[in-house]
């Protein structure tokens, strides 16, 4: 049974979410404050986290930062606002997806199911990818550059694997979103994808502002170059 950490302080919403998630086979641990969520979280205990942004003692961003110190599990933010600044900030600190209140439970379930599928979609037919001084150990989920482990979010990791498995090929935005977001590609727009690409470049490129490995092909998509 997949375990989910739910951070939410609205009692009526908690009841509906926990009932629906439990009915669909998930084991839900509810935290109503940032403090409780930090106390409840353990790296090997949960497979996914759903975090509300506005809590009495802080923000879901605070909990996401704690999670990212030791875990790459998918993180979905619940936000009462669709303001771009909140969305970008959430993705920037390691979030994988967001959903704006009010939302339908079926939509959240679809996003959770897709996030969990994505977290296990990297092919293990080969055990290692190598190019441009970057090594991906697929069986271990590790990315190494110049002897140093890179800390990537689950989306960044899957993006990197997708590009490294398709060197020199131009991948369109639609192709990338279909491969990584399953049935939820309609929920991911170009701006969100651009944020993920930018964050990945920050971690893998020698000069992120002038990318050499992962380049943009204007009007077409993105390409992984071999140097």
Descriptive report:
- With 227 residues, this protein is of the alpha/beta class.
- The chain folds into 2 domains: 3-118, 3-Layer(aba) Sandwich (Rossmann fold); 128-224, Winged helix-like DNA-binding domain superfamily/Winged helix DNA-binding domain (Arc Repressor Mutant, subunit A, Orthogonal Bundle), CATH 1.10.10.10.
- 38% of the residues lie in helices and 23% in strands.
- A 5-stranded parallel sheet has the order 2-1-3-6-7, with helices on both faces. It has a 4-stranded antiparallel sheet with strand order 8-9-10-11, with helices on one face.
- A hairpin with a 2-residue loop joins strand 10 (142-145) and strand 11 (148-149).
- Helix 4 runs parallel beside helix 8 (190-204) and helix 6 (154-164) packs across helix 8 (190-204).
- It is globular, with a radius of gyration of 18 Å.
- It starts with a strand and ends with a strand.
- The relative contact order is 0.10.
- The model is unreliable at 121-125 (pLDDT under 50).
SSE layout and pairings?
Blueprint (H helix, E strand, L loop, with lengths): L2 E5 L3 H13 L3 E5 L2 H7 L7 E5 L1 E2 L2 E2 H9 L6 E5 L4 H9 L4 E4 L4 H14 L9 E4 L2 E4 L4 E4 L2 E2 L4 H11 L5 E2 L1 H9 L8 H15 L9 E4 L3 E4 L3
Parallel strand pairs: 1-2, 1-3, 3-6, 6-7
Antiparallel strand pairs: 4-5, 8-9, 9-10, 10-11, 12-14, 13-14
Helix pairs in contact: 4-8, 6-8
């Amino acid at each position: 049974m997949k375990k989910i950490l739910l951070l939410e302080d609205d009692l009526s919403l908690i009841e509906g979410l926990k009932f629906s998630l439990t009915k669909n086979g998930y084991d839900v641990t509810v935290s109503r404050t940032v403090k409780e969520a930090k106390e409840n979280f353990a790296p090997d205990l949960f497979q996914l986290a759903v975090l509300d942004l506005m809590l009495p003692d802080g923000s879901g961003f605070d909990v996401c930062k704690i999670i990212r110190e030791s875990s790459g599990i998918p993180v979905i933010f619940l936000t009462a606002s669709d303001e771009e600044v909140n969305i970008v900030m959430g993705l920037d600190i390691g979030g994988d997806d967001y959903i704006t209140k009010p939302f339908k439970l079926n939509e959240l379930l679809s996003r959770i199911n897709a996030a969990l599928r994505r977290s296990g979609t990297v092919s293990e037919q080969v055990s290692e990818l190598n190019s441009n001084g970057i090594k991906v150990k697929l069986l271990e989920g590790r990315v190494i550059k110049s002897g140093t482990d890179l800390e990537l979010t689950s989306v960044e990791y899957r993006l990197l694997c997708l590009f490294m498995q398709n060197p020199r090929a131009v991948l369109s935005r639609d192709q990338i979103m279909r491969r990584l977001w399953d049935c939820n590609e309609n929920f991911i727009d170009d701006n969100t994808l651009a944020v993920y690409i930018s964050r990945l470049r920050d971690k893998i490129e020698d000069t992120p502002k002038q990318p050499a490995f992962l380049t943009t092909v204007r009007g077409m998509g993105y390409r992984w170059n071999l140097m």
